[in-house]
Specification:
alpha/beta
Length: 187
C-alpha cells in the first residue's frame, strides 16, 4: 500500500487565526513530493498590519481569490487522501478546523496528522531549536518563510529527510477533533 502524506501550511490575515489568506499543499508518496498546490484565499475578514508585514499578503492581493468554501471543494479530495502533516501542526490544524466550523462545512469528525517539528526534534536533536527556518537551514532546504507554498514544501522535505533517517512516522500520529477543535489525548 502506498503511504500518502499531505503536507500543508496556512497563512492567516489576523491573530484570530480563524481564516486563511493563503494555503500551500504538497503530497508525499513513498518519501517523495509528487504534487504541489498553492493559492491565495479571500478570508472575508480584516487584515492586521502585523500579518500583512509577516506574510506580505494584503487585502488587495486576495481580491478575486477563492473563498475558503470555494477552495474546499477543490482541495477536500486531496486533504482526505492521506495523513496530514504540518510544521507546528496544532496551529495549522486549528486554522483548518476553525475555517470548516466558521463556514459550516462538515468534513469528518477527526483527522489523523503528524507534526514535522516534533519529528525534527527526534531526528535533529543537536539543533538549538526546531523552527521551520532553523531546520530548513540545517538541511539546506530552500525556504521563503511565511509563504505558504514554500513552507509546505519545506515541511514535506523535512518529513522526507526524517524518513531517510529511519523515523517511523506512525510514532508521531495524533488525532485532531473537529468538533472540539483540539488534538485528542494520546491513548
Amino acid at each position: 500500500m502506498t503511504e500518502r502524506y499531505i503536507a500543508f501550511d496556512v497563512e492567516t490575515p489576523n491573530s484570530a487565526n480563524h481564516r486563511m489568506s493563503s494555503i500551500g499543499i504538497c503530497v508525499v508518496e513513498n518519501g517523495e513530493v509528487v504534487r504541489e498546490f498553492a493559492t491565495l484565499v479571500d478570508p472575508q475578514t480584516y487584515f492586521a498590519p502585523f500579518n500583512i508585514s509577516l506574510t506580505g499578503i494584503s487585502p488587495s492581493m486576495v481580491d478575486g481569490a477563492p473563498t475558503f468554501p470555494e477552495l474546499w471543494r477543490i482541495i477536500e479530495p486531496v486533504m482526505s487522501s492521506g495523513v496530514l502533516l504540518a510544521h507546528n501542526a496544532p496551529f495549522d490544524m486549528g486554522v483548518l478546523g476553525k475555517c470548516l466550523h466558521g463556514y459550516g462545512i462538515s468534513w469528518k469528525p477527526t483527522a489523523q496528522y503528524a507534526c514535522t517539528c516534533r519529528m525534527a526534534k527526534a531526528c535533529f536533536c543537536e539543533l538549538p531549536n526546531h523552527r521551520l527556518n532553523t531546520v530548513s537551514d540545517h538541511l539546506g532546504i530552500e525556504l521563503d518563510h511565511h509563504q505558504a507554498s514554500s513552507d509546505a514544501r519545506a515541511c514535506a522535505e523535512i518529513f522526507c529527510r526524517c524518513l531517510e533517517r529511519g523515523l517511523d512516522p506512525a510514532r508521531f500520529y495524533r488525532t485532531f477533533d473537529f468538533g472540539s477543535l483540539r488534538t485528542l489525548p494520546c491513548r
